[in-house]
User: What shape does this take?
Amino acid sequence: MPDPMYRQIAEDLRQKIESGDLGHGDQLPTELELREQYDASRNTVRDAMKWLITRGLIETRPGQGTFVVGKIDPYVTILTGDPAKGGDEEGPVYVKGLRELGQGGQRMPTSSAPRVEIQKAGGAGAEELQVGSGTTVVSRHQQRYIDDTPWSLQTSFYPIALAAQGAGKLLEVDNINQGAVEYLRQEIGLKQAGYRDTITVRAPNTGEAAFFKLPDDGRVAVFEVRRTAFDDHGKPFRLTVSVYPTDRNQFAVDVGEVPPQPVTPEPKPSG
Amino acid sequence: MPDPMYRQIAEDLRQKIESGDLGHGDQLPTELELREQYDASRNTVRDAMKWLITRGLIETRPGQGTFVVGKIDPYVTILTGDPAKGGDEEGPVYVKGLRELGQGGQRMPTSSAPRVEIQKAGGAGAEELQVGSGTTVVSRHQQRYIDDTPWSLQTSFYPIALAAQGAGKLLEVDNINQGAVEYLRQEIGLKQAGYRDTITVRAPNTGEAAFFKLPDDGRVAVFEVRRTAFDDHGKPFRLTVSVYPTDRNQFAVDVGEVPPQPVTPEPKPSG
DNA sequence: GGGTATTTGTCCGTATGTATT
DNA sequence: AAATACATACGGACAAATACC
Assistant: This one.
């Protein structure tokens, strides 16, 4: 038995897109035109559209039409940095296409002023800090941009004890210019000996979808990177949770000796 | 203006799920029952279902009903290993829940015999090897399992010159027991000085969806990890492309000194 | 194994609302 | 204001998968 009709229509359009017959940004025929081309009802054509939308191949714009999605030059974040520094907190970001900048395509992210909150460490967020439930932590939440486009949402958690020990800037609603890790080293001699990142993918919540301007049908997932930082006694003192849309970000991990070239050419989905 | 009706229905059901009113694996009312509860048409109820399905909250089973998705203990792959070894090719994998094994929750993946092909390095896959277009490469493709469940699809590319220089096993349809990286070191003195991983997320192709038994509506994306390995002259000699479903996998990256504990343990009574 | 009821999947038609040009 | 195009919502019909007797 053949596939359902909406799948056949979707596969036919997919083939047209991947063969280059329909290029990035091109407009598809309207739903009514497709209804005639494939001799199906408009609802069936729309089912095919939804199948293609889920796969990120097309997008619809009410009042305008349906379009092949444009290609995005992904941002590349290198997760392996100097353990004595923050890591991705102030690190550079590379752009794969490197069209706009002559060489290297390096960018610096900018951050909003942090929203600082004092919270109880419930089961909700900060198990990695290994403080008991009910202990007080400081959370510092920031919105991060590259070239004025939303790039990531980031929240760092610190035990309140650090502020009491002299790191008062943790409680201030200002960016810490030299970076929080360097500040903690200077101020109270806390050395970051290493960190562990865990990388997961999930659907965005409503706030994230709004900030990143993601379509509200939830088809674009987000990376969640949780960085637990340890001092030289192996004790965790910082948890940073960063969220990035998966459609315009990728990560790089360097182990051992790796030549300096910033990134490798793009991967391609195989048929 | 209020949200569309299908969104209101979806949000109401989402709240019931996230509040625990409906637990993992529980069955939802049938579409006809929901149609009466919300005084909507069956198609509108189904639109609400689709919204929840896209977000991974529920799943439908034809002939049975609609269910809250069960919780999955994710596999954790550590990307930062010994640069002189393969990395994740033979490395252990950790399971977060660690319920089934007493301690640590460590698992070893098993691999199918490789499918070995000789290919021209076209634009398709292996730009990272920095061989000219038209150069011949060996590809070794494997299916990898953990506890007999499909875990990843992996393809490694090597310049054909390595086989000519004495590493003949690269052309054989057998697993290389000691690992390809160790084999290349022993046989032709090729030392892996380091590697770079790039991590992206994309929709699965049909073969991947079939192997991983992913729903064919494409809502579950896959990780694509591309590992380029370099010798001690900084020359790439291996590209390994691994694909993992995002719904049951996560990655860890260790930088600097990180305490040994494999993953963040769930708070458990010591007994 | 067969038959039947239940439940979701596909497909159709139509009407009306909303966003854009 | 009008035309166009997609979004939402309704209704109905039949098919396919599953469970149960």
About this structure: Residues 163 and 170 of chain B are 6 Å apart (CA to CA). Residues 4-6, 40-44, 47, 61-64 of chain B lie near DNA strand D (CB under 10 Å from a C1'). Chain B has a mean pLDDT of 83.
